[in-house]
Amino acid sequence: MDEQLNVLPCGYFVLTSDWEFVEMNQTMRNILCIEEIPRHMHDILTVPSKVYFQTYFIPAISVHGEVREMYLNLKVEKRPVPVLMNVNERNGRYEGVIVQIKVRDEYENQLLQSKKDAERIQKETDVAYNKLLGLLQEVENKQQQLLELNGELQELATRDELTGLFNRRVFRKSLDAAIDRAQLFDSYSFSLLLFDIDHFKKVNDTYGHQVGDDVLKELARKLEQMVDVPDIIARIGGEEFAIIYDDPNHQNNIKKAEELRRYLEESVWASIAITVSMGITTFTCGDTSSHIYVRADDAQYTSKRNGRNQLTSI
User: Fold this and answer.
1) Active site residue 155
2) What are the two backbone dihedrals, phi and then psi, of residue 256, each rounded to the nearest 5 degrees?
3) Do 137 and 181 share a domain, yes or no?
4) N or C: which terminus of the chain has fewer CB atoms within 10 Å of its end residue's CB?
5) Is the separation of the CB atoms in 231 and 190 below 8 Å?
6) Are 227 and 295 within one domain?
7) Does some domain include residue 163?
8) Contact 98, 28 (CB under 8 A)
9) Are both 113 and 189 inside the same structural domain?
């Protein structure tokens, strides 16, 4: 590590996407009273801060790529040490700094003071007690709002905003997970189907982007009707879609893909009728996500070269 980083007046660290430490400067190790770098972020947090980190930090960094002034307690020699943490995502890793603080932030102080006031009011009069009940109800409402916002953040991190299908990020993780399972269990396999809408640019140029969006949303609903759990459907680009078929029988998956293509061709459309060009391939021992994606992509472009509105298997 650069000597200047090592002696910064604040703690500096680098995490992997699995929240494991890669680097940590001497200042941060001094704060933690340790010499060796811990393995995981959870190793340095108190139990409440672990929950807070999992519940709020991970969704926030996934959506915004940064976290500013998050209050956490570090676990230092069996006692909590309050810090403020700032983290940025860069090149698939997370760089962060922490600054040790001696008192809680203003918001927490206000909450503590409100609690003291509520206890005092409760003891004074029945009228004040009724006010306290109102305050408690307001706190419960705020907590419920916070839970709902957290759920929305998690949904935004996994769903395509226009179609409601899984996004490219979830697709990549699901493809990696399917490859891991296939490498671990000899009896397990899967197929990857890629497809896009034929001449979609012409739809946008002729009817406008609003109609194009309507086509994408209608297509998403038709896909959800035709594709069963645990198969994964994702929108991975403008008019590009992917399905990970969980069935180890590739011929079954080819049949399902062809039935889907024919259904899209023959079904009634409320917006503009479209067709799709498809490419499908199956997992082969030694495949990486790049290998299987490129094969499916090559199959898809073969369908396009051969006239579109068809399925090619490689």
Assistant:
1) no
2) -65, -40
3) no
4) N
5) no
6) yes
7) no
8) yes
9) no
Strand partners, 84: 71, 99
Tens-digit pLDDT string for the chain (314 aa)? 678 888 889 999 999 999 999 999 999 999 999 999 999 999 999 999 999 999 999 999 999 999 999 999 999 988 899 999 999 999 999 999 999 986 445 555 666 677 777 777 777 777 877 887 887 788 777 677 766 655 555 555 899 999 999 999 999 999 999 999 999 998 899 999 999 999 999 999 999 999 999 999 999 999 999 999 899 999 999 999 999 999 999 999 999 999 999 999 999 999 999 999 999 999 999 999 999 999 999 999 999 999 999 999 99
What is the β-pairing status of strands 276-282 and 311-313? Answer: parallel
117 and 65 part of one domain: no
Could you tell me the CA-to-CA distances from 7 to 10, 14, 37, 40, 217 in Å, in that order?
A: 8, 15, 16, 22, 53
Q: Are residues 226 and 92 in the same domain?
A: no
**pTM for the predicted model, two decimal places:** 0.53
Selecting among 239, 259, 265, 266, the annotated active-site residue is 239
Q: How many domains does the chain have?
A: 3
Residues 23, 25, 31, 35, CA torsion sign: positive
Residues 110 and 93 in one domain: no
Based on the fold, state whether residues 145 and 174 are members of the same structural domain. no
CATH number of the domain to which 248 belongs: 3.30.70.270
Cβ proximity of 266 and 259 under 8 Å: no
Q: Which domain holds residue 141?
A: 106-158
Contact (Cβ atoms closer than 8 angstroms) between residue 98 and residue 85: yes
